[in-house]
Please model this.
Amino acid sequence: MTIASRYADFAAREARGVSPTYENLAGFVSRDTGLLGLLGTVTEAQQQPNLLFAVVRLLGGPVADPGAFRTFVQQNWPAVKAELRTRITQTNEAGRCALLVPLLAALPQPLALLEVGASAGLCLYPDRYTYRYDDQVRGTGGPVLECATGRTVPLPDALPEVVWRAGLDRNPLDVTDPVDVAWLEALIWPEHAHRRARLHAAAAIAAADPPLLVRGDLVDDLPALAARAPADATLVIFHSSVLYQVTPRRRAAFTTLVRTLPGHWISIEAPGVLTHDGLPEPPDATHHNVVALDGVPRAWARGHGEAMTGFSGRSARS
Model:
């Protein structure tokens, strides 16, 4: 996929109907030879629309006016390029917990959660948030996370019981550090005031009861961290929109390793990142991830956890 097609695809499949600002801006970048030329000087991972837009916002640049955005990037390219080389997309979207809860609650309780690519660890608190699935509510505390399911997902009677939480990340973020919080805010799309409010509410929960966050590699350091989980809890290793950031070879090494570890494995990744045979068609043409338990696909999901469509018994083979 070319840089231009990557931005055009982002505009059409991820931002359309979700962020008019980013839809317009990504479409503009996909047609601007000057910006495409600059992006051609960094690696493929550093060319991501989400990363570029967040870096510009972090540096105080504009994203609502494509022309002003182009001028800012061109005039400040050394600073932009430096941030692209050191930053990674660490969108710590607590809303994705709504995708986890139906699976977590069905496992033997209590649970020991280990998130790979944990960022600041906000997805390690699925038991501390409230969920509204269509017209049904689960939980009573923390921010309210809304997830449309069309009644295609069996819902639990109660939230999971979590007794241990740990995260593995090559660059863990600290919710008590204003610099780290500024990066998390920059990653939230411009129109999404509800997500910014949710970020701060979830960060307050994490700050009051910090998880164990370990700096490390998803293959080299995972077994040692998993071994620290309490033996009397069900270990669940999970990740969401993480594996696209590593090479296919490293991705394969991780998936081979995680299958050998005790407990269960939940993945929420794009179908081109973790492949599954026999997937049903997604609900529409927008971008969807696959929610899978122990390698078995269970549902389609939107990127921020705002919608989940269960496969309703339709077969899908890992």
Q: What stands out?
A: The two ends are 25 Å apart (CA to CA).
